[in-house]
Design goal:
Elements lengths: L5 H7 L3 E7 L3 H11 L5 E6 L6 H7 L3 E4 L6 H11 L4 E4 L4 E3 L4 H7 L7 E10 L5 E2 L2 E2 L1 E2 L12 E12 L15 H7 L3 E10 L5 H21 L4 H14 L2 H14 L5 H13 L3 H14 L4 H13 L3 H14 L5 H12 L3 H14 L4 H13 L3 H14 L7 H12 L3 H14 L4 H9 L22
Parallel strand pairs: 1-2, 1-4, 2-3, 6-11
Antiparallel strand pairs: 4-10, 5-11, 6-10, 7-8, 9-10
Helix pairs in contact: 2-3, 7-8, 8-9, 9-10, 10-11, 10-12, 11-12, 12-13, 12-14, 13-14, 14-15, 15-16, 16-17, 17-18, 18-19
């Protein structure tokens, strides 16, 4: 009996299309498409005006490429990608996302069934910042078995509707943060959830995220003005305003949601409380944080923010109690320890503040923000030798981090103590990684016979093990 080939197998299966939109995504797109080329039967890419090699790269993967003039409307572009798909099912991705091979089988099995019309997948947002949060949830340490995202220290998960059965009138809504959920609700179609993960790397590029924030805020404001009584549009505005640090706008949008929505997610109360806190209105923040904790007593982020307001209102013992509850709820989270450090430092207790940071580092040794916070705490309290020692420890744990600051502190301390060879080795390592750091360049200029700080040779650092 002849063996079935891959083509026969694909013909026997329901067709799965990939739909995505792009603009100048050459740097990320290849990784995305390579991660799903053995999963999907069809790749559809709608380009909205790329000036780099995005289109050629998509075509090299066999994609059907459509062109759609950008008109400040993400939903419109997404709907064009849906229009070009021919599969029974559609997987929705962005160029800065990927799917690990471990999840291909689960997605394929979901696309074989006929009972459900769509599935939420886990959108996993990676970050190097252990104190970050996504909506109202803190990030967690990355201990997963996926190859995708391996080596990245933290992530936050969020369910998103990303695998859907194609219908003739299926369409996205929303000028920004476009979604299919309203269409599914109106149709009354059943959906399920998968454990499969979409790995999202976009938040790692902080410069790009900052560059997008003002534009996204403008889109969200325009859409909220067009649909003033739509809580989903107000939610998008609240999120974008919070991201941009526009606290009055975030507060107004959050309060509007309270009036418009029948069911208010915790993230709204969390955003309102944060906006009040940024305005110094801590009494007002308490009400919304209490609302979260009445519904979910173990909500760690609410405990942390409540502690912040209580400390600002001169109630440090109550603040410490809430931080203890946050630590109990999420033992591996560094957020409560950072807040405890800030509380103790404000109380004029640098020793306990330092102990709190050391406690956070013990839980998340690969978090550069914690390491930097410890060094800065030392320097604020004029513990220069301790700062240098902590910088050296940070470099041992995270050799490529610190932006050159840790190298400068460690090298300066070693050279001052007369340890010339290890001091020069640390200095050269720092210059190789951060050639424009002024502290490193200053140290190099003060050393006779030191390498030109603008032309540090990484090969010269091969003997630098003495410094570590």
């Amino acid at each position: 009996m002849p063996r079935k080939g891959p083509q026969c197998y694909a013909l026997a299966m329901p067709t799965l299309s990939l739909a995505m939109i792009t603009k100048n995504e050459e740097a990320a797109l290849g990784h995305c498409l390579a991660s799903v080329r053995d999963l999907v039967d069809e790749i559809v890419v709608v380009d909205t005006g790329s000036s780099d090699g995005t289109v050629a790269l998509a075509e090299s993967f066999g994609a059907r490429v459509g062109h759609f003039p950008w008109r400040d409307d993400f939903a419109a572009a997404r709907n064009e990608s849906l229009r070009l798909c021919t599969g029974r099912w559609v997987l929705l991705l962005d160029a800065d996302e990927a799917v690990d091979p471990l999840d291909h089988g689960e997605i394929r099995r979901a696309a074989r069934q006929d009972r459900l019309a769509g599935f939420t997948l886990v959108s996993r947002n990676y970050t190097r910042d252990g104190s970050a949060s996504l909506f109202d949830q803190p990030v967690v340490a990355n201990r997963s078995a996926y190859r995708e995202g391996a080596g990245l220290p933290f992530y936050a998960d969020q369910p998103m509707l990303r695998l859907v059965r194609r219908h003739p009138d299926l369409h996205f809504e929303g000028r920004i943060h476009e979604v299919l959920d309203p269409w599914f609700r109106r149709k009354g179609l059943p959906t399920g959830s998968l454990r499969a993960v979409i790995h999202h790397f976009g938040k790692l590029d902080r410069d790009r995220e900052r560059a997008k924030s003002s534009y996204y805020l403008d889109l969200a404001q325009r859409e909220a003005a067009e649909h003033p009584r739509d809580p989903d549009r107000q939610f998008n505005l609240m999120v974008q305003a919070e991201t941009a640090g526009q606290w009055e706008t975030a507060l107004a949008a959050g309060l509007a949601i309270l009036k418009l929505a029948r069911k208010v997610p915790h993230a709204v109360h969390a955003a309102i409380a944060l906006a009040y806190q940024r305005q110094g209105r801590h009494e007002a923040a308490l009400e919304h944080l209490d609302a979260i904790l009445r519904a979910q007593p173990g909500h760690a982020l609410a405990h942390c923010r409540l502690a912040c307001s209580l400390a600002a209102l001169g109630r440090p013992e109550e603040a410490r109690e809430h931080l203890g509850q946050a630590m109990a709820a999420l033992p591996d989270d560094s957020g409560p320890w950072l807040d405890l450090c800030a509380l103790e430092e404000r109380a004029g207790r640098p020793g306990p503040a330092r102990e709190a940071l050391r406690g956070a580092i013990a839980r998340r040794p690969q978090d550069p923000g914690l390491r930097q916070g410890l060094v800065e705490l030392d320097l604020r309290h004029r513990m220069e030798d301790q700062a240098a020692a902590d910088a050296m420890e940070a470099l041992r744990a995270l050799p490529g981090e610190g932006g050159g600051h840790w190298h400068a502190l460690a090298a300066g301390a070693l050279l001052k103590a007369g340890h010339g060879k290890p001091g020069r080795a640390v200095l050269e390592l720092g210059l190789a990684a951060f050639p424009d750091h002024p502290g490193l360049r200053g140290l190099a200029a003060a050393l006779p016979g030191a390498p030109d700080p603008g032309r540090a040779d990484p090969a010269a650092t091969a003997g630098g093990e003495e410094a570590g």
